[in-house]
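Sync notes, pocket subgroup
Present: LS, DG
LS reminded everyone that the earlier model was apo-only. Rerun requested with zinc ion included. Inputs:
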Amino acid sequence: MIKFPLLFKITVITITLACCSWGFLGHKTISQLAVYSLPKKLQIFFFKNSDYMIYNSVRPDVRRKDDPKEATKHFIDIDAKVFGENPFDSMPKTWEDAVKKYSEDTLRKYGTVPWEVMRLQEKLTNSFRNKLKDSILYYAADLGHYLADAHVPLHTTENYDGQLSNQRGLHSLWESTVPEMHIEGYNLYQNHKAKYLKDPLAVIWVEIRKSNAMLARVLADEIKASEGFTDATKFKRSERFGQVRKNYTGEFAKAYAIKLENTVNERLLESSKTVADFWYTAWVDAGCPDLSDLQSVTDEDKDKLKSEKESWKANELIKKGLLQSRKGKSEE
Ligand SMILES: [Zn+2]
């Protein structure tokens, strides 16, 4: 049997674990919250299909296991050397222009999330236009996922897991462990009504820029939080099937969450806001089709939505057991 050095084994395991974006909790929460910001006609359609939408909000991450072309759609390493000193100025915004400048192979190597968003926005718009219920739900769920990923700072860098700054494991710490530990204390309400985006491509680039601007803090807070910790208290090691797994401890995750203040919460809300805006824009661009013949709605459904929104406004979704991502917690 070939024996691998211990360090290699740790590396392999951590990379495998760092693949998922926002974590299941984040994606499902973002999908549910986005619906509350939609205008009534669109809202009830998505609300009636919320089980599908929430369940499938993580489908693109699940797909990564079988489809080698999937991973690159979830991120953009905008700080890769090839994109120059000021990548947001030098990167052409459209796919066609970016391909001309950097080649398709290069773009796929460093990630394509802004263009995947635009591809799906077009698919969703066409699905609304043709009033194809299954397609609307399918593309809206996928679009929501990639939009949410673009709001994660570590999805905009080559140092996606802190592996280049000796902070390996940071990815799942920021987007999974921290929100899972603290979501009970999050504010999940925001007074946002979905707005029409005249230029969705510009909006996705603004969000990527914002995510990237947060990166320095995501890394620096890990260093600040490390004060007072030793290697033994900061990390836990476990062994499974002969492989050593190294992860941050719960104590360290708590200390890191304190340093981050409410930035993860804010990014979560910003994600759901953008998702609502993109869904709404696709519907408007399709001519605001009447979806009532695609989906039956009863008075009971309307009452259920109304009371759920009241709980949302009072930030009591979790307290009242209405946050779907929390309900499924024991199953994951
Ligand atoms: Zn993802």
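DG: The pocket of zinc ion is lined by residues 21, 60-61, 74, 145, 149 (CB under 6 Å).
LS: The mean pLDDT is 92.
Action: DG to write up.
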